[in-house]
């Protein structure tokens, strides 16, 4: 049987897992307390609401309102960040608003959108929070360049193998208004540092079968 300490950790983990769907509501501490009262009363079958399901539309409306407010705030933060990044010397700003700075020039080939690339990367929000990192996982990532967010498809084609770039992606070139919950809120500008390790050409289409020889 699990020790009391291990069971306590498991129950705590249950609470953390249950918190996932709440992130998009951007709850204040007082609002979270109200939610926890509901959770406790629901578990103990002491709910003061006879038909909680009837509040489904109101819950959805609250979630939509909060997500829109968070996205608007993220857009403003992102605009300021992009403007500052674009003003730095030696950067490139593409027509779609992506800001690219070369941290180390590559000497190899440049990929096409139809190629697979092997990269090491770290992705951050504008506040510095790391939301994804192949470096922390200790394993490079490989993917088709036309199968990722538009910012990557466009920016990584400007790199050469062996190079390292810092790429700032406006939300419309990343995850847009919806974001990628729970790690990336809607309207988020994203910042990536990318090392292009290698290019693997996309697999060729299978050859058509040869015509059968005539008898």
In short:
The chain has 215 residues and is an alpha+beta fold.
Could you walk me through the main structural features you see in this protein, from its secondary elements to its overall organization?
The chain is of the alpha+beta class and 215 residues long. The chain has 5 helices and 7 strands, in the order αααββββαβαββ. The chain has helices at residues 4-19, 29-43, 56-86, 134-137, 150-156, and strands at residues 92-93, 99-104, 116-125, 130-133, 141-144, 164-169, 190-200. Strands 1, 2, 3, 4, 5, 6 and 7 form a 7-stranded antiparallel beta sheet that branches. A hairpin with a 4-residue loop joins strand 3 (116-125) and strand 4 (130-133). The longest helix has 31 residues, at 56-86. The N and C termini lie far apart (75 Å). The model has no long low-confidence stretch (mean pLDDT 91).
Overall geometry comes to elongated
- The total of helices stands at 5
**Average pLDDT score:** 91
Q: Work out the number of β strands.
A: 7
Tell me the helix content. 25-40%
What is the element string, with H for helices and E for strands? Answer: HHHEEEEHEHEE
Low-confidence spans: none
List the helices and strands and how they pair.
Layout: H1 4-19, H2 29-43, H3 56-86, E1 92-93, E2 99-104, E3 116-125, E4 130-133, H4 134-137, E5 141-144, H5 150-156, E6 164-169, E7 190-200
Antiparallel strand pairs: 1-2, 2-6, 3-4, 3-5, 3-7, 6-7
């Amino acid at each position: 049987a699990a020790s009391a300490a291990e069971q306590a950790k498991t129950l705590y983990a249950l609470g953390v897992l249950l918190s996932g769907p709440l992130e998009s509501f951007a709850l204040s501490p007082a609002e979270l307390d109200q939610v926890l009262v509901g959770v406790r009363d629901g578990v103990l079958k002491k709910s003061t609401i006879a038909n909680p399901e009837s509040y489904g539309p109101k819950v959805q409306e609250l979630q939509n309102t909060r997500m829109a407010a968070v996205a608007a705030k993220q857009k403003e933060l992102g605009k300021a960040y992009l403007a500052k990044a674009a003003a730095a010397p030696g950067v490139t700003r593409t027509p779609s608003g992506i800001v690219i700075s070369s941290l180390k020039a590559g000497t190899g080939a440049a990929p096409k959108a139809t190629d697979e690339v092997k990269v090491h990367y770290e992705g951050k929000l504008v506040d510095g929070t790391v939301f994804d990192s192949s470096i922390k996982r200790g394993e490079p990532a490989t993917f088709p360049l036309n199968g990722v967010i538009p910012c990557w498809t466009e920016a990584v084609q400007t790199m050469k193998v062996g190079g390292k770039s810092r790429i700032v992606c406006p939300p419309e070139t990343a995850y847009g208004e919806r974001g990628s919950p729970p790690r990336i809120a809607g309207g988020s500008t994203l910042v990536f540092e990318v090392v292009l390790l290698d290019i693997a050409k996309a697999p060729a289409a299978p050859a058509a079968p040869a015509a059968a020889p005539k008898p």
